[in-house]
Amino acid sequence: MKFLLSLLVFICTWLAVDAQTPRVTWGEPIKVKKGSTELDIIHVDKSGIFLQENHIVVRRMAFLGPPSKVSGTLIKLDKNMDEVYRNSFDKELKGKEFECLIFANNKMFLFATAVKKGTNALELFGTELDKTSGEQKGEWKTIMTVKSTEGARDILFSIRPNPDSTAIALATAVEYADRAEFSLSLINDKLTLAGKTLEVNYAVDPKEFVLEEMLYAPDGSVLVVNKMMEYREGKKKKNKFLDFKEYDIRLFDKDGKMISQVNVDGGDSRHIIQSKVVLKKDGNYTLGAFYSKQKKGSIHGLLFVTIDGKTGAVLNKGGQEISNAMLVANAEEGDDDEEEEESRKEAKERRRLEKLQEDDDNISSRYKIKDILSLENGSFMLMAEQYHTYSVTNMNGGGTGMGMGGTTTTTYSVHGNLLFVKVSAENSVEWMQMLPKKQVSEIARNSSPQGYGLNMSIFINRIPATHGSVGTMINPNNGNILIFFNDNPKNSGVTSAGQKAKVMSKVAKSDCFMLEVNQATGNYKRKMLFTNDDIPDAMPSMGSQIGNTYYMTGKRMRIGKTLIAVAKITIK
């Protein structure tokens, strides 16, 4: 009898544990065009999964910007991840350049640009697409026409949904050598401008000006966050680099009048060097930032600020000093057998360059704020990740034959330790945790002095770092934060700051893990979900949540063949 009771307890316990195990399901491979660069999940709802297949196209007008850009094909999958339709918009885009696909107010829109005939003006068009069929529902509508006046170097558009996805925010910039003319507009789901357009001029070199955030509130006001840069000289006088200078944050009302210029500087010799702003449900804004005790340099702490959504006044501040001892864990290289496919010379050069990076730049200054997740009772979690890139160039050999004497440049993207901090509604730090990790992604570019061979320099700004980094969701069942990432299988026991993490340098030899962070305490545990050795390599950062399911794409490239598929992770 005692044996049967023990067996029953074991079975019940096993079932309870098994019920908490995420279920991972992969769909069938998705056919993509030759030369496609990525397959992004751009939207998920009850009707299905919407993907954008990106590929490089050549612009017809050089003055509009770079000679190439990314175009896209829309692919829809149903809830079982079977393909419903695909549309490359060849017919719809005749005479126009693809810009983006946007979802807002439960509708789908296609945006495109064209040069107005007989002029030097750039027109922005929009049209609604049928979510069921992917086809155009109505005629193209002209949303805005921007003239390229004398001296203009570029015309740029930034189009994205506003925070609650009920409308679309449009930023337009005309860049000159000495200034940028900047306008902000809101587009409703009828593809017409809503309210007045904000006009802002910055009398600076456009290279010294970066639009970081553009947050429209439900009442029509907008908070604009700009990063102002300044040039500094390098070790050689002829070398000049752009450094962060300060943030320019302005709050405008619905009529385009500036309400206030918000000062969120840390004070007490605290200088904000990086930030992210989110709009809260109560209509106020939360700013999370790293600060330094010098005007530039390493990070010394975290600062949190609440901004009144109606007046722009700073309601309260809070902060937490951080140090390398609290955050940095030493990462050691993998075993020698993990570097067999990399030459000893390349491995030595890679380690030398990484060490130079660390010597020149305090490791804590590499943390980049990835997201601010809203939690219960007005609290939030700030998540940051170490990130940097470096390149190694090798000669392919001498001679005069095809491809001989060329070079191969490999650019590495390094995603390092993950930092997550829970902050109360009053901006006090409740807990802070760190996961030691070091994920390396790479892309190679081959070139030849004779012009032969494969030259992939066109993709140099699309480093496949999506195999590194992380994806996040909030478990609707218990409120815990779930973080998905690839890692070296030997790091399965790495669960706290201070532990050593082996490098993940080959995605095909990695495992995909899930980190579950307890919202109340910050304690976390990790679980191995699947190995990447026999399926498309998971790209956790290319994902989206709906309900208790997280969808992500996977991609494996082989010579002459690319395998892409979508996976769903269901949390019970």
For the structure shown, list the relevant keywords.
572 residues; mainly beta; five-stranded antiparallel beta sheet; four-stranded antiparallel beta sheet; 3 helices
Description of the structure:
This protein is mainly beta and 572 residues long. It contains 3 helices and 35 strands. The longest helix has 18 residues, at 2-19.
SSE map:
Blueprint: H1 2-19, E1 23-26, E2 36-45, E3 48-58, E4 68-77, E5 83-87, E6 97-104, E7 107-115, E8 121-129, E9 141-147, E10 154-161, E11 168-175, E12 180-187, E13 193-202, E14 209-216, E15 222-233, E16 240-252, E17 258-262, E18 271-279, E19 285-292, E20 301-307, E21 314-321, H2 324-327, E22 331-332, H3 344-360, E23 367-374, E24 380-395, E25 407-423, E26 429-435, E27 439-447, E28 470-474, E29 481-487, E30 501-502, E31 511-517, E32 524-531, E33 538-546, E34 549-558, E35 561-570
User: Approximately what portion of the residues adopt beta-strand conformation?
Assistant: over 45%
Question: Could you describe the largest sheet, including whether it forms a barrel?
Answer: 5 strands, antiparallel
Give the averaged pLDDT, no decimals: 78
The rounded Rg comes to 25 Å
> Roughly how many Å apart are the termini?
33 Å
Please tally the helical runs, counting DSSP H or I stretches of 4 or more residues. Answer: 3
Give the strand tally: 35
Form type: globular
Protein structure class: mainly beta
Contiguous low-pLDDT stretches (5 residues minimum) are 1-19, 59-67, 333-341, 356-363, 450-465
**Level of helix content?**
under 10%
